[in-house]
Design a protein that fits this description.
The complex is a heterodimer of chains A (354) and B (176). Chain A has two domains: 208 residues, Thiamin diphosphate (ThDP)-binding fold, Pyr/PP domains (Rossmann fold); 112 residues, Rossmann fold. Helix content of chain A is 41%, strand content 19%. Chain A has twelve helices and 14 strands. Chain A has a seven-stranded mixed beta sheet with strand order 3-2-4-5-7-6-12, sandwiched between helices. Chain A has a five-stranded mixed beta sheet with strand order 9-11-10-13-14, with helices on both faces. Chain A has a two-stranded antiparallel sheet with strand order 1-8. In chain A, helix 1 packs across helix 2 and helix 10 crosses helix 11. The mean pLDDT of chain A is 97. Chain B is of the alpha/beta class and 176 residues long. Chain B has one domain: Pyruvate-ferredoxin oxidoreductase, PFOR, domain III (Pyruvate-ferredoxin Oxidoreductase, domain 3), CATH 3.40.920.10. Chain B has a six-stranded mixed beta sheet with strand order 2-3-1-4-5-6, with helices on both faces. The longest helix of chain B has 16 residues. The model of chain B has no long low-confidence stretch (mean pLDDT 95). Classes of the chains: A alpha/beta (354), B alpha/beta (176). Chains A and B meet through helix 7, strand 8 and helix 9 of A and helix 1 and strand 2 of B.
Chain lengths: 354, 176
């Protein structure tokens, strides 16, 4: 037998974070991600780390900013309504060029919404996670194994580019159990955090200042432009995606996270029925895999974005396809996971019009 | 070969335990598995269900609308899931708690008075394990000895009473 253990997605995130050297966890309970806090509360003291249940999500994100500024690997986790509360802090962290991990195990919204799985925070994660000109890395796992491996990768990416990373999961991935192997994660070579505000003795008496306030607009513009140069490198180097039977596909389904797995089952069945379907699964939602979608639009006749929302990622598919081919949308929302049969039915309908 | 199983009943009947045990054993014998529980208020009583997928191929969807196997331990679960069983599938009913019979001719129905068997044999709370024994017998999805040994090995060795009861319940279900 291998090194596999059967674990909940939420637990896999927590264990992977600890194995990646995360020493500080700041959280506040909310379904469906509370197992992360629970696991951290049990494990962190044993590895010399800290798990702190803050008085609110706002407090937790600001504690995270402090830990990160001091050069520590740190994270917070929440679910949709809680991420909205963290929004201000995320913007400050981005403005301060600090690395950290924020986990969003999405549930249905808006408002308090529901507690069942959803992907309706796509816009929030990729567009409006905080005020100002900013980007954060957004990684979308689709298995419990990836809940772990992408947690490790997100910490490394955040450190390498000095920016917040978000793991965008959903309630189904958080709650489901699957075998996971922790022995296989690659690690990046990372530069020491010479910018950390961890005491003068650690940087030869030179003052490190971490700040997001620039009263002079020229100074602020320059700081934003400098940050966007880094974003350009991320877009060039860090795009990740998975392709399934796209080479000769007439119709390409685009889906991430748990929805991508449903689409994969649907694609296999559609192929059995003689419909040339394929699947493109973005693993990074920012940076978005737009080049490959644009390339697929050279031969694929149509695209369908399948999501657990009213249609959010479909905008990015349309931007990437750029009018070359029709782009359709199918989704369920409010906490309902689309079924394989529904996806097959929608794809068949669209393929008949091609 | 992919087997999709829904376990459904009331909170406290060991629905989640049964599902987890099937998934764990699947992983133990080298299959791909997923276990998707219902979560939220169900955890505090009320209806409880979970979906287990066991496959020798990569598993796409961890949920299903058309299970190959269905285990139901209360009437609302029977009403909700019985129509959904895939043709050729098997439904396992705890007939102590469900007085209905399936009228479908395209599925096999197995009625086992698991709750009654449990109380008659000083196995209160082990009706779910009795049904697990019957599932292994009807489907042959796992080797019975291997399934039993693995289940028992997951119980701390100091809890001898618990080991004995699980073994007795499994044998009772397998022999029914």
């Amino acid at each position: 037998m291998s090194n596999k253990v059967l674990m909940k997605g939420n637990e896999a995130i927590a264990e992977a974070a600890i194995k990646s050297g995360c020493l500080y966890f700041f959280g506040y309970p909310i379904t469906p991600q509370t197992e992360i806090s629970e696991y951290m509360a049990k494990r962190m003291p044993k590895v010399g780390g800290l798990c702190l249940q803050a008085e609110s999500e706002v407090a937790a994100i600001n504690m995270l900013m402090g830990a990160s500024a001091a050069g520590s690997r740190a994270m917070t986790s929440s679910s949709s309504p809680g991420i909205s509360l963290k929004s201000e802090g995320i913007s400050y962290i981005a403005g301060c060029d600090l690395p950290c991990l924020i986990v969003n195990v999405q549930r249905g919204g808006p408002g308090l919404g529901g507690i069942q799985p959803s992907q309706s925070d796509y816009y929030q994660a990729t567009r409006g996670v905080g005020h100002g000109d900013l980007r954060i890395l957004v990684l979308a796992p689709s298995s419990v194994q990836e809940m772990a491996s992408l947690t490790a990768e997100a910490f490394d990416l955040a450190d390498e580019y000095r920016m917040p990373a978000m793991l965008l999961a959903d309630g189904a991935l958080g709650q489901m159990m699957e075998p996971v192997d922790f022995s296989v994660f690659p690690k990046r070579e990372l530069a020491p955090k010479t910018w950390a505000t961890n005491g003068l003795k650690n940087h030869e008496g030179k003052k490190n200042i971490i700040n997001s306030l620039f009263i002079d607009p020229n100074e602020l513009e320059n700081s934003v432009i400098e940050r966007y140069k880094r974003y350009d490198i991320v877009e060039e180097k860090e795009v990740r995606y998975e392709e399934y039977l796209t080479d000769d596909a007439d119709i390409v389904l685009v889906a991430f996270g748990i929805t991508a797995r449903i689409c994969k089952s649907a694609v296999t069945e559609l192929r059995n029925q003689g419909i040339k379907a394929g699947l493109l699964r973005p693993v990074t939602l920012w940076p978005y895999p737009k080049k490959i979608i644009s390339k697929l639009a050279d031969h694929a006749k149509a695209f369908i974005s399948v999501e657990m929302s009213m249609g959010q990622m479909v905008d990015d598919v349309r931007l990437a396809v750029n009018g070359k081919r029709p782009v359709y949308f199918f989704g369920r929302t409010g906490g309902i996971i689309p079924s394989v049969e529904e996806v097959i039915c929608e794809t068949t309908k669209i393929s008949e019009t091609l | 070969m992919t087997t999709r199983i829904i376990f459904a009943g009331s909170g406290g009947q060991g629905i989640q335990f049964s599902g987890k045990q099937m998934a764990k054993t699947g992983m133990h014998v080298g299959m791909n598995v997923t276990f998707l529980p219902s979560y939220g208020p169900e955890m505090r009583g009320g209806t409880s269900n979970c979906t287990v997928v066991i496959s020798d191929e990569e598993i796409g969807s961890p949920s299903t609308n058309t299970p190959d196997l269905l285990v139901v331990m209360n009437k609302p679960s029977f009403d909700k899931f019985e129509p959904k069983v895939a043709p050729g599938g098997i439904i396992f009913c705890d007939s102590t708690l469900i007085d209905k019979k399936s009228e479908r001719t395209d599925i096999k129905a197995v009625y086992i008075p698991a709750t009654e068997l449990a109380s008659d044999n000083d196995l209160g709370g082990f009706a779910n394990v009795i049904i697990l024994g019957q599932i292994i017998k009807q489907t042959g999805i796992f080797d019975f000895e291997e399934f039993k040994e693995y289940l028992l090995s997951n119980i701390p060795a100091t809890k001898t009473a618990l080991i004995e009861k699980n073994e007795k319940a499994l044998l009772l279900g397998y022999g029914y």
